[in-house]
Amino acid sequence: MQKYRKIADLLVVIAAFLILWEVAVRAGWLKEFLFPPPEKVFAQFFADAPKLLGHIKASLGLILHGYALGIAAAIPLGLLIGGSARAGTTATLIGKFLASIPPIVYIPYGVALLPTFRSVSVMVIFLATFWPVLSATVAGVLYTERKYIDAAKVQGHGKLTVLFRVILPGALPQIFTGCNQGLSVSFILLTSAEMIGARNGMGYYVNYFSDLGDYKRTIVGVIIIGTVISFVFFAFGKLQKYMLRWRV
Q1: Given this model, what pLDDT does residue 4 score?
Q2: d(Cα 41, Cα 128) in Å, to the nearest integer?
Q3: pTM for the full model?
Q4: Are 217 and 188 members of one domain?
Q5: In Å, how far are 49, 66, 171 from 79, measured between CA atoms?
Q6: What is the DSSP track for 55-104?
Q7: Do 58 and 14 share a structural domain?
Q8: How many structural domains is the chain composed of?
Q9: Residues 69 and 159 placed together within one structural domain of the fold
């Protein structure tokens, strides 16, 4: 029942926003050139739907590629480094420092070294994901309570069993924190990168039509970006809740 109330509340807020938007345009509080009324924006959305699907697919493909590579590299390396307290502490400090550097600054180097804009985008998303996930994984391993590891060893479990049945589950909350951070930064960087040099994608769509002064399509693009990112984080939150269900 609570779930339906949340959905109803969300629909009420959206409806109120659309009504306020329509009233503001009709009353002249907002310039119609810059803020076309909702019905024109929705009409443009349906007209451009096939193209929008292509741009969404391109953006999500880039995110998935770079993000998956970042996670695949960071988690195993973090588990390995986190096994040593000394190495883990040093790696955490280095990882936090490198994670604080906006990966977008590496774009000029990527353009100079890599053959395509897609490969540059994948590299930037990889870096945006790798460092926070690595730091979080190492921290998660270091903070796993030693008594559980010792108990598993006393029961005769091997190193791999201890790693995958004790250490990894114990580190998962921290790992998901790093994954969330990496995902947030990745979307910001993806949109920025697509506005700089892409030929498709959600950021490209917004930038292209804003340069042309087509604000109907610009607003459509902004709404699509917000909707897609919200859906991705919703799905990721469901995955996180499922993977950490043992904590309940």
Answers
A1: 78
A2: 33
A3: 0.87
A4: yes
A5: 43, 20, 9
A6: HHHHHHHHHHHHHHHHHHHHHHHHHHHHTSHHHHHHHHHHHHHHHTS-GG
A7: no
A8: 2
A9: yes
Point out the residues of the chain with pLDDT beneath 50.
none
Burial class of 69 by CB neighbour count within 10 A (0 to 12, 13 to 18, 19+): middle
What CA–CA distance (Å, rounded) separates 184 from 114? 24
Neighbours of 213 (CB within 10 A): 9
Q: Assess whether 185 and 103 both reside in one domain.
A: yes
Same domain, 7 and 46: no
pLDDT tens-digit readout, 167-189: 888 889 999 999 999 999 999 88
Question: Which residues 6+ apart lie within 8 Å of 24 measured at CB?
Answer: 30, 35
* CATH value at residue 64: 1.10.3720.10
pLDDT digits (tens, 9 = 90+) for 119-171: 888 998 999 999 999 989 988 888 877 777 777 777 777 777 777 788 888 88
Domain that holds residue 10: 1-30
Packing angle between helix 202-211 and helix 38-82, nearest 10 degrees? 140
